[in-house]
Model the fold of this input.
Amino acid sequence: MIVWLYWVISLTIVTYASSHIVKKYENYGFAALTAFYTIYLGASQIIASRIINFDLGFYQFFAPAAVFIYPFVAQAIDMINEAYGKAKAHLAIFIAFITQVLLITFIAMVNSLSPAPFFQFEEAWQNLFGLSVRITLASWIAFLICQNLDAHIFAFLKKKYEKRVVLRSVTSDVLDLTLDSIIFVTIAFYGEYEIIQLIIGQIISKNIIGFLDTPWFIWYKKMLTWKEISFMSRGFLQRLRWKPETLPLLHEDLTINNQISFHKEF
Done:
């Protein structure tokens, strides 16, 4: 299906661009990652209004179209956490939350205006962007709880099992996406719909997509690791020349390299 082609291309572009900026323009890396994180979150909020038929081949169910891109929100916060630490991850979550408040505010502002008499799509607009206070609050509560939990779990597993890249990424994302589905559907639709099927559908679809995008996080981590080699100065390499007296210089440069390869974990 062409949807998977779009999904692969977009994920590849964002992952490569993120790692490239973090490596080459380190001072702008956090801003770039936060920008990607925010656009995925904002896009998820908008396209979630379209319900799609999610076909696994052996089983079909309905789910918001956002299930194709929202799982990358969980991965994006992992990417920030991996490169800049837990404190910066929490800062990115706060920034992203403020953008969502602004997005809802702007939509409410536009909805308060009277449409032009020749505007033919007012009903469609209101159907898509008519704000439900309950759904909005459900989205915000689920986001704040689950993203901050993701950041805590990822940082904890990174500290305890530093070399287990897949473990910290998959574990934090599965807990994030599963709890997000439970909290959001319960708050938004309890008493109006049969929520069990909605919760199961979101959990399955989000975690399938979240699992499928894990190789891109591994690729991102590998590119960050290559960054360590690039920090070794040309002057040092010229001085080394494999002489015994240069071994102290080797130790000094590698120590500096290790200190600046990744930001301090908080």
The longest strand covers residues 51-55. Confidence is low (pLDDT under 50) at residues 229-235, 254-266. The CA atoms of residues 85 and 255 lie 20 Å apart.
